[in-house]
């Protein structure tokens, strides 16, 4: 159960965020209740504790302490201005718009600027919510100070979180998700016609989740490790394990199908697994395959401290033995490929275990295990601590800077929301402003804002229904209501990364309880909440569409060009190294490609959302992203293979590969040029298969004895996927010409 929890919430980040916020609020309520403050001040304290906890997002504890200390005077100043300007409508509205602009503009200064802007905005909103006045300021000062102290106590004493601890939990999550992926792969050989599509969908999901966790670890390595060399070693081992497990899945697909399958089966939406006839007969090799897949799952899942003894060593030795040709069972070539993949995955598991758990007992090592350890030790020694500084890309300036543009947009949208909100209600107009503010958070295009506004409105409507029912049940039971508020706050933070609609539901249900506590609850208030939310979302969309707009097409095209550029860089550098050229930091380049693809996947959500009326456009976006995922897999695999070249005794450079790669890189660059400028004259090149482009003259070597055969398969699939991108992106096959 712990492994399932670790896999569902990598690093326990959502659990920690929810628990810490609830702890800070509960502690604040306990202190204020002991001081016998009135209910409105209890509500203010709970809201101040919540914002002071979730706003601070730095990873290092000293930085968190500084931001929290700076946030207190910002909060006191904000609540003071809110109380003083509460009765001055025009001045208060103008200041609120200026505050919103400054809060969004502050994002350009990193996590601290973002946190201080959030605190300033949310505490000003708090003053409006509790109808703060000048005479109530001293009491509110005390309440806010108590809230910040309780937030610090929850953060640094009761529920401390260090970068190293977070990284350690992410490692466990990676192990758990790796084991889940292998468990799904183990179902492939015997999956019947009625089950195979579900297994394939589970395989896609498990692969995507593993990749997500690997990216999360990548973002925490620098802060959570002792030095750069350790970070690079962990990065390398995580990448090896991810690629080896994904390759094993593809080999299983090939062995499961009567026809040769490719990576499109794994990545394309709706792709079906070819069955090719009867289910495979359970012979000795198939039985051994099932046994060894379960053994690999155990090997991946358990750290050294939880699985010691001879049995584990024997399992490890048997799996690593499949890297030797003489240890392969008698079976078809496709099934033998799977056993080879098991051996490579076991080697990746050994490297991951050494990187995460340190040296181990080597007394039970077999010759195959000793050889694998020597290879890993040679790779570790080749990792240099220093890295060359990457050239900084030019950043946009002025109104083209994302933070400046977003600040102007949200200021205009908030002004519209204030004007419209005042017409709906002179007392609760600020709900429209809050919605307008929120739909701009973490969005970069008009389409993203539209989808986020729709989700917030849907969650709000559902939350109003729940709020009506809860308000009737709770009545005037103050502490029962506060207990439910804590439950909803935890649920809000726990579900926020998963579903914005769910988060909005819990927020609105919580607000219904707060209105009950303030004796301001009524059906009209909750209906007004829906109206103000719809108005705020509409104002946000209008501002994003009219003021310095960033169309979804433009945003996705920019990110698509970035992905293609990163793909070309990885492919060129990997093949250059495999051809005997100078080495490069290929793992880092591969991760840059993965991050660019993740950004593109997020930006295409407005295009792929189920409610979009443009069905063909939605299908095209999904198809393009799926092809890019296939390309990214082969790019990662090429990079991982090239990284092995200096130390792996069975891999030798092949200069012929450089020529085989030229067409692929040219086509990637041609597609990127066409996306960046549709008037570009770039054309893709076609020709014979990659394998046939290599000049004969060297004798054939064992299939896994040299690098060439494995690399050729990746290059061939990459060439096919890149060519497949041409049609949906507007480069028709009729315009292609063979390479001379």
TrEMBL record:
Its main location: membrane. The chain crosses the membrane at residues 12-33, 39-56, 63-83, 89-106, 113-133, 139-159, 406-424, 430-450, 457-475, 481-498, 505-528, 534-550. Keywords: Cell membrane, Membrane, Transmembrane, Transmembrane helix. Pfam families: FUSC_2. It is a multi-pass membrane protein. Residues 417-542 form the Integral membrane bound transporter domain. It is found in: Cell membrane. The keyword rRNA processing does not apply. GO terms for cellular component: plasma membrane. Belongs to the YccS/YhfK family. This is Integral membrane bound transporter domain-containing protein. It comes from Streptomyces fodineus.
């Amino acid at each position: 159960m712990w492994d399932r929890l670790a896999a569902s919430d990598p690093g326990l980040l959502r659990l920690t965020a929810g628990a810490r916020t609830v702890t800070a609020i509960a502690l604040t309520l306990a202190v204020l209740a002991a001081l016998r403050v009135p209910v409105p001040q209890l509500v203010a304290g709970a809201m101040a504790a919540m914002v002071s906890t979730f706003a601070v997002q730095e990873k290092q504890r000293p930085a968190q302490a500084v931001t929290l200390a700076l946030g207190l005077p910002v909060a006191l100043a904000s609540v003071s201005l809110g109380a003083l300007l509460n009765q001055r409508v025009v001045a208060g509205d103008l200041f609120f718009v200026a505050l919103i602009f400054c809060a969004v503009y502050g994002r350009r200064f990193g996590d601290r600027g973002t946190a201080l802007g959030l605190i300033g905005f949310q505490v000003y909103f708090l003053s409006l919510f509790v109808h703060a006045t000048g005479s109530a300021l001293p009491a509110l000062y005390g309440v806010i100070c108590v809230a910040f102290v309780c937030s610090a106590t929850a953060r640094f004493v009761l529920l401390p979180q260090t970068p190293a601890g977070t990284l350690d939990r992410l490692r466990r999550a990676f192990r758990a998700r790796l084991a889940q992926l292998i468990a799904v792969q183990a179902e492939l050989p015997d999956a019947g016609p009625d089950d195979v599509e579900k297994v394939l969908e589970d395989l896609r999901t498990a692969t995507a989740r593993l990749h997500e966790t690997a990216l999360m670890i990548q973002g925490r390595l620098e802060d959570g490790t002792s030095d750069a060399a350790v970070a690079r070693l962990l990065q390398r081992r995580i990448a090896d394990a991810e690629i080896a497990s994904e390759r094993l899945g593809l080999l299983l697909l090939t062995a499961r199908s009567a026809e040769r399958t490719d990576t499109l089966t794994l990545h394309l939406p709706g792709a079906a697994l070819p069955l090719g006839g009867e289910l495979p007969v359970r012979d000795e090799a198939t039985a051994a395959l099932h046994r060894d897949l379960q053994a690999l799952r155990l090997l991946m899942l358990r750290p050294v401290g939880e699985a010691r003894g001879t049995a584990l060593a024997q399992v490890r030795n048997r799996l690593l033995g499949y890297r030797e040709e003489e240890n392969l069972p008698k079976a078809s070539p496709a099934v033998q490929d799977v056993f080879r993949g098991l051996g490579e995955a076991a080697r990746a598991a050994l490297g991951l275990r050494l990187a995460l758990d340190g040296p181990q007992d080597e007394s039970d090592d077999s010759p195959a295990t000793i050889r694998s350890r020597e290879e890993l030790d040679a790779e570790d020694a080749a990792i240099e601590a220093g890295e060359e500084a990457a050239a900084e890309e030019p950043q946009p300036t002025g109104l083209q800077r994302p933070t400046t543009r977003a600040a102007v947009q949200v200021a205009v949208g908030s002004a519209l929301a204030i004007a419209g909100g005042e017409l709906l209600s002179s007392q609760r107009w600020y709900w429209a402003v809050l919605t307008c503010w929120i739909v701009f958070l973490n969005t970069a295009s008009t389409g993203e804002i539209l989808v986020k506004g729709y989700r917030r409105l849907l969650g709000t409507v559902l939350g109003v229904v729940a709020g009506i029912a809860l308000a009737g049940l709770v009545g005037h039971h103050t502490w029962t209501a506060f207990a439910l508020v804590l439950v909803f706050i935890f649920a809000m933070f726990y579900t926020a990364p998963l579903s914005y609609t769910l988060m909005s539901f819990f927020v609105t249900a919580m607000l219904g309880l707060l209105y009950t506590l303030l004796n301001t609850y009524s059906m009209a208030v909750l209906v007004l909440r829906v109206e103000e939310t719809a108005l705020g979302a509409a104002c946000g969309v209008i501002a994003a569409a009219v003021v310095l707009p960033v169309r979804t097409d433009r945003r996705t095209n920019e990110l698509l060009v970035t992905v293609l550029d990163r793909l070309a860089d990885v492919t060129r550098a990997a093949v250059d190294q495999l051809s005997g050229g100078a080495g490069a930091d290929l793992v880092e380049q591969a991760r840059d490609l993965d991050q660019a693809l993740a950004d593109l996947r997020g930006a295409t959500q407005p295009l792929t959302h189920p409610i979009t009326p443009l069905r063909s456009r939605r299908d095209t976006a999904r198809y393009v992203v799926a092809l890019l995922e296939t390309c990214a897999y082969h790019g990662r695999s090429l990079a991982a293979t090239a990284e092995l070249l200096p130390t792996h005794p069975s891999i030798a450079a092949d200069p012929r590969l450089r020529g085989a790669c030229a067409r692929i890189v040219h086509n990637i660059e041609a597609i990127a040029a066409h996306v960046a400028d549709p008037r570009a004259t770039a054309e893709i090149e076609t020709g014979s298969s990659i394998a046939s482009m290599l000049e004969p003259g060297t004798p054939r070597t064992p299939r896994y004895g040299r690098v060439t055969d494995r690399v050729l398969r990746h290059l061939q699939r990459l060439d096919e996927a890149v060519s497949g991108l041409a049609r949906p992106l507007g480069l028709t096959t009729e315009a292609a010409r063979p390479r001379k």
